[in-house]
Amino acid sequence: xxxxxxxxxxxxxxxxxxxxxxxxxxxxxxxxxxxxxxxxxxxxxxxxxxxxxxxxxxxxxxxxxxxxxxxxxxxxxxxxxxxxxxxxxx
Length: 90
Description:
Blueprint: H1 2-9, E1 13-19, E2 26-32, E3 42-46, E4 53-54, E5 70-74, H2 75-80, E6 84-85
């Protein structure tokens, strides 16, 4: 959760100031920056609406009933989706 607060607390755009050497006019340009890539151990979640857990292994029997896509995400992302650790593989 702290990581999410830090990521969302930072600006997604930076402003650079440039001046033309022969003019006294200052121009501003905004450049978009990408947030840092998600890091940390990956866990597996079913993208179905009734899924409630994240899994340590893609082969966990808790994922057998998933009829949707299985995605690899970080623990923080999974918990941000409201998921908890699977009782079978954790």
